[in-house]
Amino acid sequence: MFKRIGEYIRGVRTEMAKVTWPSREQLIESTTITLVLSIVLAIFIFSADLIISRFINLII
């Protein structure tokens, strides 16, 4: 059992060495884009929900 755990950990280390990590600038840029798009989408969904609910209230 301990042999299998050791093999697993060695395999993880080998695979992690192959990973290409983003630079700090790339990480900041990707995070900023994600946050901005999330906020824009939240505003869009809020607005659509507000408009649809008011339209439904006018009909009823």
Short description:
With 60 residues, the protein is an all-alpha fold.
Structural notes for this entry:
With 60 residues, the chain is mainly α. The protein has a domain of 39 residues. The longest helix is centred in the last third of the chain and has 36 residues. The radius of gyration is 24 Å and the shape is elongated. The mean pLDDT is 95.
Q: Give the structural class.
A: mainly alpha
Number of helices, counting only DSSP H or I runs of 4 residues or more: 2
As a percent range, the share of helical residues equals over 70%
Mean pLDDT across every amino acid position: 95
The best one-word shape is elongated
* N-to-C CA distance: 67 Å
**How many E-type strands?**
0
Strand content: under 5%
Rg calc: 24 Å
Main sheet characteristics: none
Order of helices and strands: HH
Low-confidence stretches: none
